[in-house]
Records
---
Amino acid sequence: MRNPLRSEAEAYRFLGVVIVGAAVIIAGAYINTWLGVAVAVLAFAALGRWLVHEPVPGAADPARVVASGTPPGTYRVLVVAPPGTETVTVPDGAEVLVVVPALASTLEALTGAVDDRRGDAEATAAALEARLPGARVEVGADDPALAVEDALRVFGADEVLVAGDGGMVDAIRERVALPVSRL
Amino acid sequence: MYLFIASEIMLFGSFFTAYFFVRIVNGIPWPTPPYHLPVFVATINTVILMTSSATMHWGTQAIKRGNVWGMRAGLLLTFLMGTAFLTSQIFEYMRAGFNTSNGAFPTIFFCLTGLHGCHVFVGLSILLFMTIRAFRGHFSAEHHHGVEIGGIYWHFVDVMWIVVFTTVYIL
């Protein structure tokens, strides 16, 4: 669904739509009260349909694929470990960054009530840091694919290992042009 | 943003529910005789407010193109027109000839237009800060998020006025 107040230009455009809609309703009501009611129902239905079906800017663009280079002579592994992960196995000799996405439900993400989920992720990150000497462990975004994108911007990896379910692996694979496998 | 829109819909929706209940379910004449609504003044006010949206849009587009003085002029004009709207509404209240003790019609009228007036006041406060910041050179073609957000709010206030004006004054 398109947000009519997404930007100033869109809000201004929405104002124009509302003015036209109000003028049509007033014209209908001026002729006959029930005609005005019918026009109002149709106008609201048309407005709802427009908002639902109007393409969101950028939605049709192909998904951005993030790749990242690694300095010569090093092998870097990015590990995605959801909260609750007790341990992960990483290749010997590799530089490792473990990202713990602060997974949240849709409602929690929408309302911003992610403090508890972030607390869970921080606890998991602390436990993994103690078990994986030499590895960096960080808490990431509530969306695993976004957490991987964020991590790749500062940590050029050769491979992504995911200690989550198949859905999480597929979601990351769609956004990352690197070998992604499940632990 | 969705939560803001939802909360505003619920806020205005509660007052519009009272409006429709009074006018349609109870069948109370709108406006209740012998009172009259100042439709002409409200229409002038509507034109002022819609024009202020145009100047707001002009100001925002100007800064996007790096035209700082265009933005300053747009914001200043928007602020002045918003002030004119609110001042006119206060005079309209003073000369209405009825108050909230005169029944359901005046109560709903003052609640709906007053709620919108509160939004205009908030919008004017935001505009004042935006205008001061604009004249202090805080915005540029690259950094004008404050103007964008204030513009969205101002257009939203105008959208709500169209709904209030149509239902309360015209229909």
---
Amino acid sequence: MIRTLYQIEEKVLLLKKKFRIAVAWAQDKNSIGAIYNAVNKGFVEAIMIGNSTDLISICKKENIDEKLFTIIDVENEKIASLEAVRLTKKGDADIVMKGLVGTDKFLKAVMDKKNGLMLPNAVLSYVGVMEIPSYHKLLFITDPAVIPFPDLDQKIAMAGYAIEMARRFGVERPKIALLGASEKMSRHFENSVDYAIMCKMAERGQIKNCVMDGPLDLFLACDKNSIAVKGVETPVNGDADILVFPSLESSNPFYKGLMLFANGELAGLIRGTEKPVIVISRSESEKSKYFCIALSCLMA
Amino acid sequence: MVLKNLDDLKKLVEGGPRKKLVLAAAQDQHSLGAVVRAREENIIEPILIGDKELIHNICLSNNYNIDGLRIVHEPDIEKSVEIAVKMVSNKQADILMKGKIGSPSLLKIVLNREWGLRTGNLLSHFALFEVNTYHKVFAVTDVAMNIAPNLKEKIAIVNNGVGCLNRLGYIMPKVAVLGAVEMVNENMGATLDAALLSKMNQRDQIRNCIIDGPLAFDNAVSLESAQYKGIKSEVAGDTDLLLMPDIEVGNVLYKSLVFFAKAKVASIILGAMVPIVLTSRSDSEQAKFDSILLAAAASK
């Protein structure tokens, strides 16, 4: 079982495989650094698509041998995104990664109906996995990046993606908490309605391979003491593997807050695509980007 | 105690003080017959309100013994109901029964805002069935009053039914929320409400019972069916109370049980200050008697 973000890399190395990653608009110091690290470890081959002059000059500055990469020179970020997606769809790459390009432009290429990477009828969503020193295990969270206000079908898809990822980490029957402000059902909290429906679906086997409960507040989801104090009977029991958030506005500050104030680390991935898609904020550290690369190889 | 048949209700009223039943617009042969018999069997102490002369004539020609019975003479039908209702609200009677008046007219008077029998609860119909193919009696609600209850109304209907079963000695009655299938289906509203009711029960927002749903009728009443389908449920196969999705399903089920399965049935209206016996002309004499018996057993 993978218990830390560093162990993702160990698991990937055991696969003894080289994953080909196409990076769109790749002339970014942190992206190059992270990719270089993965290439050095021997599990990645990189296709860097971008402004080759800038790319090479960054490599020189960082003491990185640019000959380790296949470099494709393109004019702008839009073409870089299209090319990265095209190569991946064609099978010349296994994974596509966003470099310096804006997320919206990049996802536009990914989501293109004809040339994009979306699975038919799939929900595009994002699953993150967090390592938080004060929590006793890795915590999968969804969706901190893509869907602003998920409806029931999107929540079901989000849960499914998170379950799939947790299982890849070796958590056979992850405990999923569907998060709300309270554990009570209330018509004032529309999400609690979706949650009750999802729990029943899990009970009836319509959502598989998990133990699900919600609505639960964060304490009941992740803190055994609160369970004892509140006396709420829940199979998640303060031991959640997965948190499903009701909105982007709740999940995004959650993970950023943990990174800023609790030394949390996040790796994450877009789901709903034929091949793994790495989308990570341009401001993220080289280490975060490296974790995302390792995660994408694990999920490829 | 679990009631095996409707006769078991007698055990609940035996030995206790006889409940006072007030029959409104008592000049009705069918109702009088059942009331007189229930009096003879020591189940109730009736008070008759209505046209004294008509009451005497009916009893004379049908050999009903009403010696020593309290009769309040009021030939006007609506006024007689008003007297009966006021008797109940003044705690002079424990059960209200409908005589020669239409149900809507009676209910209008029952719901009078000044001196009616309102408690703030929704009124609902509760029927108790005995069929020789099930191992105990089971209740069905609502087959006659609420046409297409929404979630809030369903909660009220369940609470009424559970309250009644609690008074009949069921500590944690098993409630099945009926659907056409046991799976949650977004296109079938009844299955969604069922999921919500189950969750509210888990969270102690609906108490004193165990709720599961959606359950299809076969899963609700047959453990074998439930096991065959792999449904894990505390309720399946052992249902005490079946919640109907709407009146059309409920009414057809009620009538098919009576006509095809030769079920015995007792029914009352719940949600007012006291149980109301509101049988229809087409109910058998036995059903009217059993309904009085149920009202006596369920009265506080």
